[in-house]
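Format notes (please read before filing issues)

Several people have asked whether sequences and structure tokens are stored in separate files. They are not. Every record keeps both together, in the order shown below: the sequence lines, then the token lines. Line labels are part of the format and must not be stripped during preprocessing.
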Amino acid sequence: LILSDANSVHTFRWVQSIKQHKIEIVLFSFFIPTKSILKKYNKINVKIVSPNLKPKVKNLREPNISKIRYLGSIMLLRSTIKDIKPTVIHAHYASSYGLLGWLCRFKPFILSVWGSDVYYFPYKNFFNKWIMRFIIHYPNILCSTSYAMKKIIEKDYRRKDVKVIPFGVDINLFSSKNKTNEDFTVGTIKSIESHNGIENILEAAKIIIHDYNEKINFLIIGGGTLLNSMKEKAKKLSIEKNVCFTGHMNHEIAVKNYSLFSVFVAVSTRESFGVSVVEASASGVPSITSNIGGLSEVNLHNKTGLVLSENNPYELADSIMKLYKDNELRIKLGNNARNYAAENFNWKDNVSQMINIYKEQL
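Then the structure lines:
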């Protein structure tokens, strides 16, 4: 029994890959999947159980009092456990599905932390930090996508046996293509939220276009609560002709755009791992990233890309210009990035790691 958001592309990838190992799966999700995603689950014959809480929860991205309705799902989850008699329960995301799994008191129980559940949720107030201690210490197995989160758990919760299983990529789905300065494009695929550094990218674009007088193009893929305000900011900075906002794209379409990028930028102020950076690397695209969280694990300075301090548009602009002017360096870093992704973040290896964990609990 997997407890996770059915609408998340990450959830579907886990479910689909685990299913290929001939493991029967039932997915418990607070939210009913959209019609297009539901077709995918039906195609692989995965049953979904859901209390359909979306109409009752006001804001899915931010903590708010309406999320207390998650706890109302406990009876449905308990009846589901009673009906299907799972061998193992695996919850994804500590502060929601992990909390529900802890309350059910089922063993063996596996928990995977994702990011903001470790970086953000516990530090909102004392109660969150207090309840998180119980959630973190309850699972038989605790998994993290990055060593950065593992260190936080070791330090703040004194749990030392965290298993790191990266959320890798299928290298075969990505292909590399060396690009010249004639089609030089700086790209990012991120939700347009404050912590993803989109404003920082726009400030760097303004420096490059107006101060350095270079007509470099920027492609920003993703939707979010700040999309319209970022579009307005681009107009105020007089860079709208060189900056394209696509809005939200589903994952299958979005990843095809890596082939358009000369450089990938991820200058978040918090990041648990950095899947988009690994996808860019698999496409042979060097990244420019901030030196926070799991980003330092997926992008190596002067080896697979460039790493800089957060919230520094001038340093970002100079880093972009460095790779713009040095085509040989850019190609070298891109080739290194693809090799690094293949050796360290191969999705098949990550799935095998998780399957072995399941087998250990039988």
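For reference, the curators noted about this record: The longest strand covers residues 109-113. The chain is about 45% helix and 15% strand.
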